[in-house]
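Title: Comparing notes on inverse folding

I've been comparing how different people in this forum approach sequence design from structure. To keep things fair, I'm posting one structure and asking everyone to reply with a full sequence. Here's the target:
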């Protein structure tokens, strides 16, 4: 199985990094390490997560973020990595506009 992180998800990760790095130097790196670890876990656990808006949603353990992904032909496509502190309507719009 292979994991592909799409451009929108990469932009989400960069936005999260910028936010946390502005809070305190080094937290942005910890954020990325944590999220990439969660994404890597999809090699074992892809497909077991509940579907929300047509995407599987993996909740992150250390940060209030969710990884939205789809499975297709033995590959995992990470579509978005969104901050769950945002307005649920905003989250829904982000998911729907990326599909």
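Reply #1:
Here's my take.
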């Amino acid at each position: 199985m292979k994991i592909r992180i799409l451009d929108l998800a990469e932009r989400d990760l960069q936005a999260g990094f910028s936010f946390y790095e502005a809070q305190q130097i080094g937290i942005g790196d910890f954020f990325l390490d944590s999220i990439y670890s969660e994404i890597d876990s999809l090699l074992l656990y892809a497909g077991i997560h509940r579907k929300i808006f047509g995407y599987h949603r993996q909740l992150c353990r250390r940060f209030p973020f969710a990884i939205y992904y789809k499975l297709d032909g033995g590959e995992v496509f990470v579509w978005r990595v969104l901050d769950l502190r945002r307005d649920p309507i905003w989250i829904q719009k982000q998911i729907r506009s990326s599909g």
